[in-house]
Amino acid sequence: MNARIPAWRGAIALTATLFVAPPALADSALDRSLFEASMHRVPERVSELLKKGANPNFEDEFGVTSLINAALRGNLRTAVLLLDAGARVDEDGRNGCTALTWAARNGQIRMIELLLDRGAEIDVRDLGHLTPLIRGAWNGQREAVDLLIARGADVTAQDDFGNTALTYALANDFLEIVKRLELAGVVRKAGSVEEAKARVAKQEFVPCTRAASEG
User: Fold this and answer.
1) In whole angstroms, how far apart are CA 108 and each of 105, 112, 166, 195?
2) How confident is residue 202, by pLDDT bands cut at 50, 70 and 90?
């Protein structure tokens, strides 16, 4: 399957053919190709580019890596290839969100398991001090919340405004997640549901807008 090549890339290729591109330019094009391939379910292409020397830790202008691309989309085979090639598991973008943060936000269960098995920091914080568990609760990802709790996530973690995963779940009426947090002992560790409800009712709940919900 032939992918459509942007005009600017065609110009780079033509320049390389006619004048022999400097190594830095060639490497940049290869890295960008890997970055774009990581957005799609094309592990064979990813493997090919890595074998050619593409940098698994290349970042775009927003600090997003190929691993983050794969994690937020659930491209598991691509993530394995990148990690095997040396991708840094806890690398984050400019908003502080790592691959694990994105996987939790989007409910990518197998990706969460993979990243944790490869050493990802389970309670990593983004710019607003939201953890993957808080992200998962905020976005209604029940299975992600279950998995993170089972793997030892800090249920008492708070964002910049003092909100916990429980507060976010209550504020968004994700009652199944509230139940799971109760069963996990969050109520005993982070205050009662009644206290969290009162906080929301009094409008003391202020969702963190730094590193906004879209990540």
Assistant:
1) 8, 6, 20, 31
2) low
